[in-house]
């Protein structure tokens, strides 16, 4: 069957199919164009950032946190009282047990001695007492003495049983008081951790109430400031110093402005050293941990407070990179910043 006419034209059926395919291709192309345009628009649209909490919102959150914190602290205080009472009860129970053990040991020794004496000497029977030419009154007296010894032995055995039972009760009580003490200690630690966590939340929210003074450029840097005040540091550095002093307490001093032109921010009033020890001594483990906390706090709040970089433990963290980088060895504890975190602001 011929598909095309003698003039070379397509058969009407094939021409219709080709037209349909062209129409579908056009529709698909249009859909793809729309999808691509939408994707480009979505890519170009800036991501919607979470709105920063206002001062009013922060203060409201702080009030709630403070209320919850007071409740946790009260619970922690009550746990401390319960723990102290449990400690007192355990001490009393152990003292009681020690006294019972002493009486028990004394009675045990006496009974062992009596048992040995009876084993060695034997126990005279009635017929043995009546034998011989002894006066009957002497024999009766000896019998009475024997009965007395038997009564004494029985009394001592009864007393031993009472002492033994008293010691057992004292052991049980001491064990119960020890278990109670361990339980209150666990409860105390749990409540302490909850209270500390809540206090840290409060501190974090308080931090958000402060922003660095001055003008911040679009690229994240800040317009420089002049040093001021008796300590010759900029307002930005003064704020960072104040917040660290309030939060961490730096007992070995804070050094900021220095006249020596060492190329850093100290002569410009834009840097402070938070000392963890004196005289170049290597800081204790507790003070090193304090330095870690100060450095972590500075990094966490760097963008908001205008902190440019942090140096600690022969490493430098810069706000541009957001990562620590190892520094060259400068030959000493202080020079390598092992005894203090250094914080510089813009």
Summarize this structure briefly.
Residues 55-103, 171-212 form a coiled coil. Residues 230-338 form the ARB-07466-like C-terminal domain. 61% of the residues lie in helices and 7% in strands.
Task: Give a structural overview.
- The protein is an alpha+beta fold and 346 residues long.
- The protein has three domains: 14-44; 67-208, Helix Hairpins; 235-345, no CATH class.
- The chain contains seven helices and six strands; from the N terminus they run H-H-H-H-H-E-E-H-H-E-E-E-E.
- A six-stranded antiparallel β-sheet has the order 1-2-6-3-4-5.
- Helix 2 (55-121) runs antiparallel to helix 4.
- The longest helix has 73 residues, at 136-208.
- The two termini are 88 Å apart.
In terms of quaternary structure, the protein is single chain
Q: Give the strand order, joined by hyphens, for the main sheet.
A: 1-2-6-3-4-5
- Count of discrete domains: 3
Average pLDDT, all residues: 79
Distance between the termini: 88 Å
Overall body shape: elongated
Could you outline the blueprint of secondary structure elements for this entry?
Layout: H1 12-44, H2 55-121, H3 126-130, H4 136-208, H5 235-248, E1 254-255, E2 271-274, H6 285-300, H7 302-305, E3 307-311, E4 315-318, E5 323-326, E6 342-345
Helix pairs in contact: 2-4
Can you tag this structure with a few keywords?
ARB-07466-like C-terminal domain-containing protein, 61% helix, coiled coil, 7% strand, 346 residues, Helix Hairpins, ARB_07466-like_C, alpha+beta, single chain
């Amino acid at each position: 069957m011929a598909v095309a006419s003698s003039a070379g034209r397509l058969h009407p059926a094939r021409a219709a199919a080709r037209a349909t395919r062209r129409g579908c291709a056009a529709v698909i192309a249009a859909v793809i164009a729309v999808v691509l345009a939408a994707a480009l628009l979505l890519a170009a649209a800036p991501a919607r950032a979470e709105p920063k909490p206002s001062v009013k919102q922060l203060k409201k959150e702080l009030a709630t946190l403070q209320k919850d914190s007071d409740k946790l602290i009260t619970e922690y205080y009550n746990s401390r009282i319960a723990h102290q009472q449990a400690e007192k009860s355990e001490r009393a129970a152990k003292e009681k047990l020690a006294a019972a053990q002493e009486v028990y040991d004394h009675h045990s020794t006496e009974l062992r001695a009596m048992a040995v004496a009876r084993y060695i000497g034997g126990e005279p029977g009635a017929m043995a007492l009546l034998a011989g030419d002894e006066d009957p009154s002497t024999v009766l007296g000896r019998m009475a003495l024997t009965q007395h010894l038997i009564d004494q032995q029985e009394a001592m055995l009864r007393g031993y049983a009472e002492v033994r039972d008293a010691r057992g009760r004292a052991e049980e009580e001491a064990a119960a008081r020890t278990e109670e003490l361990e339980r209150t200690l666990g409860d105390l630690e749990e409540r302490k951790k909850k209270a500390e966590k809540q206090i840290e939340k409060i501190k974090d929210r308080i931090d958000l109430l402060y922003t660095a003074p001055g003008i911040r450029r679009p690229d994240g840097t800040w317009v420089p400031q002049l040093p001021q005040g008796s300590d010759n540091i900029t307002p930005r550095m003064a704020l960072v110093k104040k917040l660290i002093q309030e939060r961490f307490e730096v007992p070995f001093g804070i050094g900021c402005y220095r006249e020596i032109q060492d190329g850093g921010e100290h002569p410009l009033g834009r840097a402070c050293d938070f000392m963890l020890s004196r005289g170049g001594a290597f800081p204790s483990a507790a003070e090193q941990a304090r330095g870690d906390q100060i450095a972590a706090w500075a990094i966490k709040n760097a963008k908001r407070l205008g902190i440019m970089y942090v140096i600690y433990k022969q490493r430098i963290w810069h706000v541009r990179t957001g990562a620590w980088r190892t520094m060259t060895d400068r030959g000493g504890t202080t020079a390598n910043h092992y005894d203090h975190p250094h914080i510089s602001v813009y």
